[in-house]
Queue: 3 jobs
Job 1
Amino acid sequence: MTPPRCPRPPRPTRLTRRTLLAGLAGGLALAGSAFGPAFAQSDKAVRFILPNAPGSGVDAITRAAQAALGRALGSPVVVDNQPGAGGIVGLQALARSAPDGQTLGIVSNNVVIFPSVLKSIPFDMPGDFTPIAVIGYTPVVLVVNAKVPASNLKEFVALLRSRKGELNYGSGGNGTILHLASAQFLDEAKLDARHIPYKGVGPMVTDLIGGQIEFAAVSLPSVQQHLKTGALKAIGMATAQRVPAAADIPTFVEQGMPGYVVEAWLAVIAPKGLPAAEVQRVHAAVVNAFNDAEVKDAMARQGNVIQIGSPDRAMPFFRSELARYAQLVKKAGVEAQ
């Protein structure tokens, strides 16, 4: 097969089963308290740094809650996408920001994977940050280009087997949660494919629709519209049960691959040293915003599961996830780059 003409990503990286990661899951804390009216208004904007490209699942969730977050925080909310270096650029900018509650971030599992897959990062994770709350998780779906001659797990595995190592899959960057989610699928299926890393999920989805790559594991919100229009096809949902927002897509568990379950969790964080009073204020605003009727409806349509954890459980959760991924990456033989 002729390698794809794709100017944005670097050269394809061949993956073998030795480098594939298994066992991704998001353990989330639950808190269900609701808060009262919006906070006092301020003209000073609150910046939410997203170490993700526009069009990603994190981006879709943040923008759906943007107006409600602004009302709850009492200030306009500006979404600042900084996906460079797989998200490192945005995280570094957040770490260097003043811990005053005016600069916050919404992040995914990627932030606790980076220390295990990169030899050097310009900050300490999670020591240079103040985790405020795990928000919940977003479903992951394995999708293919519309022209790929497969519509379910059995057909797709047969196609991969017939074209050993020839198909290409994309991700938003090396070592990201969605890269590892695709790698886990290949490990479960005992098959190989070529990895094409992109600088963000948005450009990757564009090339997936265009046929430069054949498949990818992605968050449901980032491709839901493309599934509806037929630009992409879903092979299966990497969830334990079907997702109400996409009830027509069967899970991999249903299709005979019970080990393929991926939950991409999301969390709100701030720079290190955010005062306790600010932590509580921001946490209250997050709970208030995600309990807004319009936001809850948007989250349900996207298929997201909202389970907001308490501030006192956020840092222990990050540390436990950091250790868990370090063990998984080491077990899988993934070498840091």
Job 2
Amino acid sequence: MTKKNDSLPTRRTSPPRPDQLSEETVEFLTALDLYKRKEMRSYLKFEEIFPVLKELGYGFEGTQAALDEAFDAALDALREESGRLFPSWSEVFGVALELGWQRE
């Protein structure tokens, strides 16, 4: 029997189903889709979620420079952990919440 190597990252092979997401995450994904349509954009940079978060009533305490640096570092850590170059938008939303974005 093969022993599982705990040092390898856990990899999700398929995106979560809608019933596996919180209402908060579904609300964010819907707002993100509306933002992309309004701006007539197919693809967004990860940092472009900040206006969407603000529109939903979220705020971040700290400077924009601190936010950018922390956000980039957290996304790099997520990429390393997941083994995927492009995390899902629900994962990016989770990163934002972990960094301290809260509803005001």
Job 3
Amino acid sequence: MKKYLTIFMVFILALSVLAACGPKDVEETSSENDGNEKATEETTKPEKLVVWEDKDKSPWLKEVAQKFTEEHGIEVEITEVLMASDMREQLRLDGPAGTGPDVLTLPHDQIGELAVQGHLAELTVDQAVVDRFSESSISAQTYDGKLYGLPKSSETPVFIYNKELMDAPPATMDEVYDFSKDFTGDKKYGFLAVWDDFYMAHGVIAGNGGYVFGEENGIPNPKDLGLNNDGAVEGATYIKKWYDEGLFPKGLIGENGGSTRDGLFGEGKVASVMNGPWQFQPYKDAGIDIGIAPMPKLPNGEAMKTFMGVKGYHVSGHSKNQEWATKFVDFITTDENSLIRFEQTQEVPTNLALAEDPKITENEGAEAVAVQSQDAIPMPNIPEMGTVWEPMANNLQTIVTGKSEPKKALDTAVEQISKNIEASH
């Protein structure tokens, strides 16, 4: 009884305080608060935001950032940093030193590791902003139930061919193999894929039943590794076949594999390749009339389960301007600005409103990426994923060079990954 009486008296006291406040008092207080909020906004607004964009991808951003500056009076300084290899490491060094960015771009598989280490800030945005994007792309930007970025594009490897050398894209890899057997020779190749790179090899391995991590309730389980199961071995054996039969050049391996593939294709010596949308424009710039299609089906009749990556824009956990950095990320990923980005970079946005835009639907490359993405598997973004790449690359190289049989090499890779996970996480 005493408890309820106390609550009642507090309620009566609150009412009396409100009654003592006339309309004039409330109006004056409200006006005063509005002024304080405006003053706070002005004093906390930074003079400049520092943004790290991917290498050779900044022209569109400079155009859009200028609109942000005109609207908010904040200068935007854009620096290009190679996203694939340098962005993460540079953030780890420059962020804590106070010389890092406010905003940066990353592939989504790096989010978990950097978030755990405190290098990324959780984003707080309206639900309407989240609803702007596909559910899968938002999921890729989420770690441990928290949003750490907004999507800018999704990508997955597809089949790219030289229309002068190949009339139409084959429906199956058996057809690609037969074509290559006839075409390959005199330093010309029917099809090239850098399959000692696990990002590219995953399509074959997963399409045959291998997997990186098993899942429990939709969450990757790093204790369940499927990279040496029967399906993975079958996939690695298929990869080995192309190297063993001389259908791939000896230079198509290791760090130089990608440049070898791209150089030969750009010279018109290769009829088709497996590569991602980032390479569409460079191939065109090399003078190749390219056709683009989803990856042909594997010999087992299954689709290649390529890795799907979602690039996003993120706010540094070390930024002193996280609120305005978040506003900038929201601004540059609107439907209008995402379309500008697509037109200049050809990287496919995940904005739902753009899915039916003619500029995208009538684009052969965008359509191929969209179709292939239906069978693609998002790269796990948990920190443990960082332990997978090097052991898989090293052991795939021993397979394609004939130094180890697929089963033995994949067992070694899984053993190394397991030890790395145990030691690091």
